[in-house]
Each structure stands twice: as structure tokens, then as C-alpha cells.
């Protein structure tokens, strides 16, 4: 039976790989051991490969074969295993002509440091061409500082990694960075990154990064002092940061979409204060999202916000709460101001059900 299964697998692979086929994307399953380069027509098939997803425990001969025939990979998504990593991936990375997009992913905090160090250093050849980089745990080396043309940086810290140090972000200067997305990463590291950009940031998305009132002020200050061209912002907002938010709305005149995660766990949130600030938004800002968890939004505050918005561009509004409210007055209020033309479109959903993207107002 096992031999029969192998024959079927061989037939399937051979049916797809021939001189008449050309692949641009390749996804290799875990512990893949089929030596693709030995199949007749493989060179024609994979010589134009532009994207590769694989795990680092793919058999060594597979990496060796791909290194021989693949030179045009631009995007690499690599899942780093804790054990049984094969160093052939290092040569494959070095052999590419122009690597632009890199994603290092791991589910284990204790991935092999010696392997990771060699893997990270293999990117040095592409330091001038890498424009997108994503990682799920801190790097061992300072290779990130060499990506001088980096435009998009995604930092996705796993929840269980929250106490580890992100030393690779210290004193990091990325002058051409345009998009910063971060989850479960120390807020002080993000402040440092923002302060060491050159005004090109147009999108900042910070999520699941708990911090105190002082650092909430600091991160907002860093944004309005260094990001004059900002278009989209998602950030935690605390009661005590109203002055900083107002300064941000003054300095970031091109802001197009604002997503505020409301901090309402320990104290009741001052919606009046927030909405009063938002009515002084730049003329181009009319897309809002509010995410709140523990307490329902104050309807009197919301109604005053809508009244003060009269005469401005109708707003696109989305609210995300822990559970759907049963307050009929909430829905009647929204319909009232939608009829008046204050609200152009409204969406209301829970944390667990919303399907729209962070900066998407449908």
C-alpha cells in the first residue's frame, strides 16, 4: 500500500512538472523530500519562480536542487522549526538575484540560535533590495539595521513571548519606512522606531501592545512629531492622552482613517472628551473605528458628537465591542443620524465576528 501511494505521488508530481509548465509560486509541505530538480523539465518549470514558502526542515537535497535552478525568487516565507533545520536554505537565499519580501515565522521562542544567526546573516546580500520584512520573534543579529530601503515592517510578537527582549529594535534607523504594523511588541521599541524614521510613515498599526498612560502619551507624541504624512493610524487610546491626540490631528493633516482601541478596563472612559477632540479633525478625516470591550459607549456623548459633525463630510463609522448591545436606543440613534446625512455608512460588530480589515470602511 505504501509503495502504491508513492507511485501515485510521483505520477501527480510528474504530471505538473514538465517543459510546458512554468511556476511563479511554490509551497512546500513539512519535511518535503522530493528532489524536484531531478525531474525532466524542472529547470524550465522553476527557473521563473518568484515566491517560495517552506519550512526549514525540508530535506537538504531539495534546497540544493532549488538553489541550482531558482535565481529569481523575490518573496520568501520561511517557517523556522525548533529542531532538524537544514542549512541548505542559507545557500538558496544567497543565490537569489533580488530578494524583496521576507517573512520569518516561528511558533517557538527557543528556535536554534546558531541556525537563526546564520540564516539572518544570509540576508546581508539583499540588504539593499529588501522592502518588506515580517517576523514573529526577535532576531538574533542586527541585520534589520542594514535594510536601509525597507518600506514595510511587521512585528508580530506571540503572546507567550511577551517577556522576551526585542533588542534587535534598539537604535534602529529605517529612513524610508512607510508602513509599521506591530502586535505584542514593547511600546518603547515602537516609539524608538518611529522616532528614527524620516517622515515617510503613512500607516501605523499597533495592536495588543498594552502600556501605561505615560507611554501612551509618548507613542502619540512620537507619531505627530515624526509622521507628517500619516494616512492611517490604529492605536490604543487612554483618557489622559486627549491633548496628544489633538496635537496629532493638527500635525498629521493628511490623516484619512483613525482606529482607536479604547482603554476602559480600570476606569470609565471619557467619551465626551474624545468626541470633542475628534470634531476638530482635519478636513480629510471622516473614517473612524472605535473598539471597546468592557463598557458600552455613552449615547449622550455619541449624539453630541454627531450634532457637532454637522456640515462636514458624512462619516464612515465602525464600532467593535465585546458583545452586541441590546440597547434599542443605540440603533435608533444611528439610524436617525444616517437619515440626516451625518453618517454615510455604519457597521457594528463584535471582536470575534468582524470581518473587515483594520483600514477598510466598506
Can you offer a commentary on this structure?
A 13-stranded parallel beta sheet has the order 1-2-3-4-5-6-7-8-9-10-11-12-13. With 362 residues, it is of the alpha/beta class. Helix 10 links the parallel strand 11 (287-291) and strand 12. It is built from 11 helices and 13 strands. Helix 3 (60-69) runs parallel beside helix 4, helix 6 (187-195) packs parallel to helix 7 (213-226) and helix 9 (271-278) packs parallel to helix 10.
Task: Outline the fold blueprint.
Blueprint: H1 2-16, E1 25-27, H2 42-46, E2 51-55, H3 60-69, E3 75-79, H4 88-94, E4 101-105, H5 113-121, E5 132-135, E6 152-156, E7 179-183, H6 187-195, E8 203-207, H7 213-226, E9 232-237, H8 242-251, E10 257-262, H9 271-278, E11 287-291, H10 299-308, E12 315-321, H11 328-339, E13 343-350
Parallel strand pairs: 1-2, 2-3, 3-4, 4-5, 5-6, 6-7, 7-8, 8-9, 9-10, 10-11, 11-12, 12-13
Helix pairs in contact: 3-4, 6-7, 7-8, 8-9, 9-10
InterPro entries: LRR_dom_sf
In which order are the strands of the major sheet placed? 1-2-3-4-5-6-7-8-9-10-11-12-13
| Total strand segments | 13
Compute the CA-based radius of gyration: 25 Å
| Helical residues, percent | 25-40%
Strand content: 15-25%
Let me know the average pLDDT: 88
> Quick one: overall form?
elongated
Oligomer: single chain
Structural class: alpha/beta
The DSSP helix count reads 11
